[in-house]
Structure formats: structure tokens, C-alpha cells
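2024-03-11 09:14:02 INFO queue: dequeued item ADP-ribose pyrophosphatase YjhB, NUDIX family, len=183
2024-03-11 09:14:02 INFO validating residues
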Amino acid sequence: MDRLTLKAQLQKYRTPYEEEAGFIQDFINLTEDPLAYKRERLAGHFTASSWIVNPARTHTLLTLHKKLGRWLQLGGHADGDEDLIAVALKEAQEESGLSNLRLVESSIFDLDKHIIPERPHVPEHFHYDVRFMIEAELKDQLVMSNESISLAWFTFDSVVDMIGYNPSILRMLEKTSKSEILL
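2024-03-11 09:14:37 INFO prediction written
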């Protein structure tokens, strides 16, 4: 997925979720900035994530992020790579050790614009996170990266109890459940 493909997908992207719909134009506008894929763009930049589910759509793989101290989907910075699908897959493999990851479809699964708190040498900034649904097998061995405190599969029913309220995770869970109904 190159910059033009991303922009075209964003222009066609529709969501019934008000919060998500509210920042689609911000994502489209960001595609015009040549620094959009680099973390050096201090106001905010693209990141890519994988919403990893098992083929039966009963579990999702989440990481307890070391810097943020929250359970999140796997993903990271584009670091200059405009192919956000490749970034999402690379980050998922690096953060989970899974090598048998399968992209469910090449279209955007979810978007989230969120603030990253200030840290030493890094000001507060936005992540414009483009997310893709990825499948993996529950039985495959996980290898936790140094970016995580923990890495675990959660049943869809247990996610809220385990991670608390996170609107973007809840939205992806709901989207996954709705996509199952359509299959």
C-alpha cells in the first residue's frame, strides 16, 4: 500500500462509529505531508497496527505495552515506510514472534487518532494509527519482545474485564463480531 492507495482507501472509508468518523479527514490531510510516515514529524505521524484474531474469531492477541502500561493491539511506527500493511505485519511479527500471520484483507479495518504522552526527549504528539485485521493460530508459540511487559491471547468475552475501558479496542471487538455475522 503506497501513499496514493492509502489516500484513496481513506477517502472511501466509512464507519458508523462517530469518534472514528470524526478524524478520517485528519488522516486524509496527513497523507499530503512528506514527513507523515516519520516520527520526526513531532505534531503527529502515521503508525500501523495489527488487530490479531484467531481464525475462529474467539480470541485476540494483545500486548501489555511497556512504555504506556496498557493492553493494546500490536503495532508501531512507520519509520519512513509508506506501506502500512507491511509495517503492521512487521511490527506484529517482531512483537509476537509469530511467523504465520495472515492479512484478512488489504483494506483498512480501523482508524484511531490518539495522543501519546510526553517522555524525555519526545514531546506529546498524535499517532494516526491505521489498523488491519490479521489472523494467527492460537497454538503457535509466542515470543515476547522487549517492548512488552506481557503478551497474551484473550477471549473476546474477557477483554473488557482484563483490560478495562478502551474505546478503540472495544470498537475493534465490535467490528470483529459484526464481520462474523456477515460471513
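2024-03-11 09:14:37 INFO annotate: The longest helix spans residues 167-182.
2024-03-11 09:14:38 INFO item closed
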